[in-house]
Amino acid sequence: MNSVKRRRAVRLAAAVLASGLAAVGAVAVASPAAADDLPSGRGGATATLGGLTVFDQAVVRNGAEKEQVGAGLFEMAVDEGGTIQTYCVDIQNPTRPEAKYREKPWSETSLHDNADAGKIRWILRHSYPQVNDLSALAAKAHTGPLTEKTAAAGTQVAIWRFSDKARVEAVDPAAEKLADYLEKNAERLPEPKATLTLDPPAVSGRSGERLGPVTVRTGANAVSVAPAAATSGVRVVDRAGKPVTSAVDGSRLYFDVPAGTPDGTTSLTVQASTEVPVGRAFASESKSQTQILAGSSRSNVSATATASWARKGPIPALSAAENCAKSGVDVTARNAGDEPFTFELAGVEHTVAAGKSETITVPVREDQEYAFTISGPDGFERTFSGVLDCRTASTGGGPTGAGTGGSGGDTPANEPAPASVGGASGGDIPDDGDLAETGSDTDTPLLVGLALAFLAVGAGMVFLLRGKGAPEGE
């Protein structure tokens, strides 16, 4: 990071605002008291970014300037087991080594307003690594001989032309011909379904009732269901009241809370082993380039939903999700109690009547790293944090690409042979692959350290901002 960028980072990290909300996460609390954060209810695959593994060089043009970057496949380790390969859909932004990523719908990424997002999915299904017969791919595209590196580079270049509207060409002639072929023939395909989600991710109600339903959405054949905490007498059941240990797509789950159960909170977790569909987006939990899935081994995925109950009073259930179309974060508060639930959000007091729900969109600046505490009566407190990354533009003065910081270096230090994930021989590929985006940069974790320092010092609602400048932009 040069001195100018470092000074900009320090200034931006030091900007503390009194508004914001988490990108992902959902919680339900039984009473107006502080509680530990619970896992995100959106669910799906979570992964840690590894290295750029299969790539060649490309040239990105910006007016009279041009920059050589690495273009190709990244590998990620799925947190609960498995491996995925991804391409980048965010060329102007850097990647953070070992960044944590989460599967997200296109609506929560830079693809949200991209009419050509479906063409990117077509490219993924009709090129490397989903098509791993490179001779057949070369013959179809009339490229001449292709290697894994040049096939990956040509595929990435074609993706960038749709994801970033970039002026980019592959250095290798065969890779460039492949990019041209893919760009010319791409068709719009629908967004693939999520691997695993629970809807809604938080429910609430009175003790003595069956709370829910929580609907399972999954592409897996079946998922296991287990309560996350041993709460006396509370069971996870189906609509008929029978205990549930497994479920399928469309299953409705309920929390059966016996009458007289002390006010409290519990959760359930669903898990599955499946392949993440090609075309699913992965966004970082920190400031790091958005990815799109290109190939996947069988991976373990999970989702969590929470439930809270009380005998009387307000009984809130809170959930949050990024809304790229509105450049903010939606927070939804549902009150299943018999009294109004009053809370403070982004410096504004809100009241949700008994039996009602309300969704508030909190504006968040692009590339802003934020943390926000929702507070209510009697010590009620819930904190969410994240980064809003909905556009492809950057203030870095040019693309960073998929290489080592956009320096055009020949290889990253960790360049291994390509992982064996996904893939098929020949042309058309079944709709069961993976999608992700790529990118790399070695910027230091300066912003994270500064952000954490401000969080430790701040009191009440703290909003951490880290901007990257004026944006270009299931």
Structural description of this entry:
By secondary structure, the protein is an alpha+beta fold. It has helices at 3-13, 117-125, 134-141, 148-163, 173-185, 446-457, and strands at residues 16-17, 24-28, 46-62, 65-78, 83-88, 100-104, 167-170, 196-199, 202-206, 210-218, 223-227, 235-237, 246-247, 252-256, 264-274, 281-284, 291-296, 299-310, 316-323, 328-335, 341-345, 348-352, 357-363, 368-375, 381-388, 463-464. Helices cover 15% and strands 36% of the residues. The protein has a six-stranded antiparallel β-barrel. Strands 9-18-15-11-13 form a five-stranded mixed β-sheet, with no helix packed on it. It has a four-stranded antiparallel β-sheet with strand order 2-19-20-23, with no helix packed on it. Strand 21 and strand 22 (348-352) form a beta hairpin. Helix 1 (3-13) runs parallel beside helix 6, helix 2 runs antiparallel to helix 4 (148-163) and helix 4 (148-163) packs across helix 5. The relative contact order is 0.24.
